[in-house]
Amino acid sequence: MRIDIVTIFPTFFDALDLSLLGKAKQSGLIELDVHDLRDSTHDRHRTVDDTPYGGGAGMVMKPEPWGEALDGILGDDTEEEPLVIFPSPAGEVFTQAMARELATEPRLVFGCGRYEGIDHRVFDHTASRARVRLVSLGDYVLNGGEVAVMAMIEAIGRLVPGVVGNPESLVEESHEDGLLEYPSYTKPAEWRGLPVPPVLLSGNHGAIATWRRQQQIERTREVRPDLLPADQPDA
Ligand SMILES: Nc1ncccc1[N+](=O)[O-]
Questions:
Q1: Contact yes or no for 229/178 (Cβ under 8 A)
Q2: Which residue, among 35, 15, 29, has the nearest Cα to 157 in the 3D structure?
Q3: 183: which residues sit within 8 A by CB, 6+ positions away?
Q4: How far is CA 17 from the centre of its chain?
Q5: ipTM summary value
Q6: 140 CB less than 6 Å from ligand 1?
Q7: Contact assessment for residue 40 and residue 68, using Cβ atoms and an 8 Å cutoff
Q8: Residue 235 has pLDDT above 60, yes or no
Q9: What's the CA-to-centroid distance between 3 and ligand 1, angstroms?
Q10: Beta-ladder partners of 194
């Protein structure tokens, strides 16, 4: 998978050189290029924003630098249309299902907005040469798209085959089967007077699986009843 990121804070993504994604980059499983939007400006102050037409507070990101930055990234694309994702609170909500879907894309481009957002014509023009999706992490407002892109790249990258050593560990996780995950325990069997649930020490794999499923249902019902299938309140 090839990932390109456009941002005015390129060093923000140095963190992607760490841990699993760093290994994936070194192994070539994931190719990551970060582009500084200001490299696509030509004035002395490397200006990327201006006042909004129609008035209002804040500044809007100018279309020209974005057009030029994306020319450089999309221009060389011969194979299928890449997918360009702009993080936005006005976007469709990012979910594990979307992460799984995006993990199959050969190429992803992320455009990090700042300020009050990006001139809307950038989305319209980009849609003439690529697939464009506005995606939101959730119903709150961040100062820009970088944090959202970091989260999405982590959620997507770990699903790319080969990135996570043991694919089994991807299966029993919250949201993977639509429910929250069961509680986990490790040694010691008792810690500060708190025992590990005895069923987990029983060696009875059937009973353990049943207990874990019940825990998932109870946790989901308590914390995220919206995730329980409507027709199966007891999942
Ligand atoms: N919630 C957000 N706020 C600002 C920029 C991006 C956002 N997001 O969720 O992708």
A1: yes
A2: 29
A3: 215, 219
A4: 16
A5: 0.95
A6: yes
A7: yes
A8: no
A9: 19
A10: 191
